[in-house]
Amino acid sequence: MRYLFSNRKRFSDLTEQEVLALAISSEEDDARIYRGFAARLRDDEFASTAAMFNEMADEEDEHRRRLIARHQEQFGDVIPLIRREHVSGYYARRPVWLAENLPLEKMRGLAADMERQAEHFYRLAAQRTTDAKTRTLLGDLAAAEAGHEKLATSLEDKHLSDAAREEEDVSAHRQFVLTWVQPGLAGLMDGSVSTLAPIFATAFATQDPWTTFLVGLAASIGAGISMGFTEAASDDGQLSGRGAPWKRGVASGVMTALGGLGHALPYLIPHFWTATIIALIVVFVELWAIAWIQNRYMETPFWRAAMQVVLGGALVLAAGILIGGG
User: Fold this and answer.
1) pLDDT tens digit sequence for 24-35
2) Could you give the 3-state DSSP secondary structure of residue 6?
């Protein structure tokens, strides 16, 4: 299960100096990513796109210089060492840009996401800033990032193939994944896997279906409450754009409880072996469902997800059976 407390700072607790320092480090990271994209697009067909990414990187460098100049003017030369991973709620990007054969469509989507997140950050930062010059600078940078987002989105029309694709509201889908799917999947994985050992250890130790059901019920409800509160408390959603904490908490808590109850409910059947066989079938279905969700929404290759989830679940299940049967 996740830790109930985090040692990362909340965005609302950052000082104005720390906000500027976070903006500086973020601009440095984004410039590096854009230059990495440009380096991959060496083909003549995408030369204009590579040049566009280089221009975006140059603009991020200019943003960084303006931020550093403002920091020097307001706070001096010593910039606090603070990065996005030090701030609770700052969007944690998966390092997919490190992939050798990242397609242009994925680059375009990542660039649009990066600029949208940067704009959101600068608008929130400007609202919290009391210094007039700093507030003006952050507002100007928010407007600049909004322009970059439109530029990144336009790359799809210029360079992607004309193959037919379903139209969908990309923003709504992304928000759905961030608010409901990610915390729900984390909860389902936690509830399904973490309760296997105590439930099946109790089952084989006592061979009493009712006692096993009570242990499974307690473990599932307890895990659901813990995961729900942990998810809600870990990120207020303001900076990451992941949605309301209560929504993510509900998704995580409910799915955690359901993940454990799935293989606890069969023990309402009074016959031990009948209940156990049904519970094992439910576990099998749960683990494959998790692998499918990872593949469908998180873009994890299905067989890799299946190997990770099914193998991990099988090991936990075997540990519970061995402990209970011993």
Assistant:
1) 999 999 999 888
2) coil
